[in-house]
Design goal:
Order of helices and strands: EEEEEEEEEEE
Shape: elongated
Largest sheet: 7 strands, mixed
Structural class: mainly beta
Helix content: under 10%
Number of strands: 11
Strand content: over 45%
Length: 121
């Protein structure tokens, strides 16, 4: 019964900051790469940032220098610190995690429900 629950979305003025959090719960054996994706209205879902179990990070060019992804393995959580936000960052943000569940012992991608981020000019 693995789930990813997101929090931290909201409204912010351009130049402001938000911090998104995503916590995994359920019967989890291990967690691999975790990441954040976003989808704006009328557009395809795109990768924002990922972080491996060893802490290696990767960012979309559009957010480099502004966003920081991190994880807390003890809390089974991945965060996305978003600074210097721009109106074009407005989208629904989704948490993603590669999880080996106890019930299946099979590694699969899990997705959060999505959280809205709106940046006004």
């Amino acid at each position: 019964q693995v789930q990813l629950v997101e929090s931290g979305g909201g409204w912010v003025q351009a130049g402001g900051s938000l911090r998104l959090s995503c916590a995994a719960s359920g019967s989890i054996f291990s967690i691999g790469t975790m990441g954040w994706y976003r989808q704006a209205p009328g557009k395809q879902r795109e990768l924002v940032a990922t972080i491996t179990g060893g802490g290696n990070t990767n960012y979309a060019d559009s957010v480099k220098g502004r966003f920081t992804i991190s994880r807390d393995n003890a809390k089974k959580r991945v965060d996305l610190q978003m600074n210097s936000l721009k109106p074009e960052d407005t989208a629904v943000y989704y948490c993603n995690s590669r999880i080996l569940a106890v019930a299946t012992m099979f590694s699969e991608d899990y997705w959060g429900q999505g959280t809205q981020v709106t940046v006004s000019s």
